[in-house]
Predict the 3D structure of the following.
Amino acid sequence: MSVFTGWRASLRIARRDAMRAKGRSALVVAMIAIPVLGVTALDVTYRSITPSTAEQLTGEMGSADALFSDQRIGPIEQMPDGTMYQQADESAPWDDTRPSIDVRTTFPKGSRAISIQSVPASVTTGYGIANTDIYEFRTSDKLARGKIDLVRGAYPHGKGEMAATEPFLKSTGLHVGSTTTVRNSGQKYRITGVVELPDNLKAKALYADPGAVIAPWKARAAHDKKVLPPNTGSKEWLVKGPEGAGVTWPQVMEANKSGVLVKSRQVVLDPPPDSEVPLARKNPDSYSDPGSSGELSAALVTVISMAVLEIVLLAGPAFAVGARRSRRQLGLLGTCGGDRRHVRAVVLGGGLVLGGIGAVAGVAAGLGLTAAFRPVIEEWSGQRFGSLSLRPTELLVIAAIGLITGLLAAFAPAIVASRQSVLESLTGRRGVRRSSRVLPVVGVCVLASGCAVAVYGGTSGNKTLVAGGSVVAELGLLACIPVIVGFLGRLGRRLPLSPRMALRDAARNRGRTAPAVAAVMAAVAGSVAIATYMASNLAEADYDYTPALTKGTVVITSSDAKTVERLPLARTAVERNMAVTGGPADYGRTWAGSDCSVYYSEENGCGTLEMIKPAGKGHSCPLKGKGAKELAARLSSDEHKKLMRSPACLDEYMSFTSFGTDTNNILVADAAMLSTYVKLDDPAAAKALAAGTPVLLNPAYAKNGEVTLKAFHKYNDRDKKNRKLHPGKARTTTDRLKVYVAPAKYATTPGIRMILPQRTAERLGLHTEPSGSVYAVSRPPTEAEDQRVSAAIEQAGGGIWVQSDHGPGSRDDTILLILTLFAGVVTLGAAAITTGLAKADAEADLNTLSAVGAPPRVRRSLSGFQCVVVALTGVVLGTLAGLVPAVALRLVDLRDALQQMRLEPMQSAYTPIVLPWATIGLLVVCIPLLAGVLAAAFTRSRLALARRAG
């Protein structure tokens, strides 16, 4: 019999065996298809979401041939892609204040062009008033297609119409057909349609035809001195070359002579040689285009390797159980003259058949799901697919990997099945094999070596060693899993029947349990590693974030003395529209001499007020000035963090004027400010303020319980009010005040350094004026609430603004959620597979249990505990394995941060390692319990009547 004839028979037997055991076959196909599906969807999504150069150009310039913009610095030289340029005369001073030229004079003859110009404006909304960007851009022109597209409605035509993006409409409560007013010009516009930017779906903006917004605004500003002229951005032009000829490189260089930067589609796609680019000749090494193909290839290889590993680990036991269930058939094959290679061929044929079906099904399902969920993916990523990019070569490689993986999964079971004697196969005896004693020892050594390499890579800044060490450590832990599973069997001696049997069954059948545990571990390790690294980065960002206001507060501030009388109306608007939890805490500002905030145009035309920081330890920040770098070189990350957060150094990077005060942050207020804004619940501090004693929040400014205030009283001729109150020549006064020093932790209070009682300020000869109020709120205000309050204030006359701090930014936990779901699905799948195989493999034991009188619920509880054992063991080991690369990568970040800190001592070196407890808790507690409950729920409690043997 030829080789092909033997394989044909083996494949026929494998196909019939797969059809006979449809449940087990479907399980194997699913385990192969799911990772193939994931890799296919990832490949297609990545290729589709990553725009090509041509697609990027379409997103920037639509269907035009080039984008022209005046840089207003005189003649320039640029690179062909338009991303870098410089003055042609390097010795000429940089001057970007030159008047604009008529860019249209630089267009190629016979060209057609449309302009784009933006202006920030205040508009009315469905809730009140909002600030946004308005673009004068003829969106209906064909040149705009690809840069901006119509979603629904109609393009604006004429001077009374606008189009809006979907995010803008959602945030303002407007819709197609609504009317909005540009408050700066007083002109009304009807929203005729919804447009989108394919490369930025989250943009909030309005679009009008050229001349519809800026011209009326300028006209009003020319007649009404109270209206400020529009602060327009530079005008850009989309240019279509004559008769489709495009814009050539000589034409680009000609435009450069007038100071116009040009990004030409033709030049970018077909750039000239460096010898024809003056800027490239001057700087031959400065403009290389570093590629990231190496990193992408490494990431792709890692993802595919993980998918292959999980397929082998999950599908391998299924083939092993299938081989044991077919051992009588394989034994008969031996009695008919078949040798070991024929037995191996039958089992491998099963891997080839099921692997091929799984690979094809996975690729097809991946393509179908990507196409079905394309809108969801686009919305999540914030950009449209250029097209659904399918690369046949990559898809064939993915399918081939799935097919080969099916063969690999069947390889070990084929070897084991071929080694069984015909007698063992026909009688059903399994034989007894002892576990290897060498493998766990080797595994422990490999685990320790991998951890050491990863840590060394982290401390030395070598990410390649981190990755390699982490993989080696995980492989070492994989080798230890059989021993760990065997040890679990000894833990069940004092447990009830079902968990004891589950633990012993897992230990007795390590060949089935260990791969499933390893698959769970591999999936959870990657998820935990990424989640830990992300959680640590978020904690670092939170630490580095400097709040503008105390959390849970809203501040109302008047712009000048004339708007102070409108504060009661502003307070009413805030109380009605925001989630305030108490009454207002009023405050005022204080100054010496003339009012600097009013007479800022006159240099040295007003007084100054300064709080002097004493010299010496505890007062001056050692990270500033002489010896700072030497000190930073000796500090650890924790020591530097402690020093940075000390009162002496806080003011070096936390300096705000959130309350309209000067840089000294001295506020005139009473005890209500302490409880509402400072969150200082101290009766002694309130009593001190009532008695006229200032409350100092930063103890670095106090010496022996006193602070030094230095006031320079100077008055200009325009300040008649203050000059009348304080006549005479300019004078300097220095006062030492007894203060109440608050605990050091209150030095971080944003915007306030000291609270000064009103009567004390008057006693010192300082000027004071009511400035605003502070409210405590239960949550940050929404966009709708902000717009309602803005509308109420503007209706009352304006000149007052409302501030709130929304924290360090939104927490987008989508990636963490996806990782958790991925790990959870793999965990549930591996536990379900193991449970199903255990039921198929231990049918005789279950029959025996039923025969000796075990109640039906034992079968359900046994399945549930078998599932919990696999899931919980894999999750715990995966969590430990995932911490290795996460910690090592954070060590790399710490090393980089320390190096930067030693160069710039005021640069934070805080690099925490934070565990994602929510993700870990969900994986360690919820997923195993869910797996056990599902396994128990879907297991029949009664056995079907079995045919008596013999």
Remarks:
- The longest helix spans residues 857-903.
- Residues 546-613+651-804 form one domain.
